[in-house]
Amino acid sequence: MTPFNSTPLIYIAYANASEAQSLMERIQDFSEPRLIDASDLSNSNFMQSIAQHQTCLLVLDEACAALKSLKSFGKEAAERHEFFRCLVIGDSNIEQWPQGTIQMNTHTLSTTIIDRLRNESNVLRMMSSRVRHVRRLQNR
User: Fold this and answer.
1) Are 50 and 81 in contact (CB under 8 A)?
2) By the 8 A CB rule, do 32 and 7 touch?
3) Which residues, 6+ apart, have CB-to-CB distance to 52 below 8 Å?
4) How many Cα atoms sit within 13 Å of 106 on the Cβ side?
């Protein structure tokens, strides 16, 4: 029995609440979506929920990507968890985000974003499974 939840956790930080809600509804068949309220965000709660999942993604629009608190949470989460990724939509300063951050154009269609999230979450789950298997073999 693994202590981790294998369903990918996807945090969504959008300035437009209706867009975020729509995205959440559309990705809930392959992930566990959660909204982030940037004004009421606790670092310990964020890190604790990420630690309970094998894979996690943080999806941000351009307005939320400019918030320093979310950038610092993204960097800290990427340092602590090897299967955490950020997906930034429309931010031109991708260098300020952790290595491995995915950047998409501001005008990207929502179906393209959803397809990318599905693909990335599947890739992260496969990588996580392989790494855990190799580590189990090495510990024998």
Assistant:
1) yes
2) yes
3) 3, 4, 5
4) 7
117 membership: H or E segment, kind and range? helix 110-138
pLDDT of residue 22: 95
Nearest to 97 by CA among 17, 5, 13: 13
Give residues with Cβ within 8 angstroms of 72, minimum separation 6.
none
- Report the SS3 class of residue 52: coil
Dump pLDDT digits (tens) for 23-68: 999 999 999 999 987 666 666 778 888 888 888 999 999 988 888 8
Q: What's the pTM value of the predicted model, to 2 decimals?
A: 0.87
- Taking the C-alpha atoms of residue 121 and residue 87, their distance in angstroms, rounded to an integer, is 11
Q: Using CA atoms in the order 68, 37, 16, 96, what is the torsion angle rounded to 10 degrees?
A: 20
The closest alpha carbon to 3, from 51, 69, 41, belongs to 51
Rounded CA separation 104/99 (Å): 15
Give the DSSP letter of residue 39.
G
Q: What are phi and psi of 12, to 5 degrees?
A: -120, 125
pLDDT at 133: 87
Distance in angstroms (rounded) separating the CA atoms of residues 29 and 25: 8
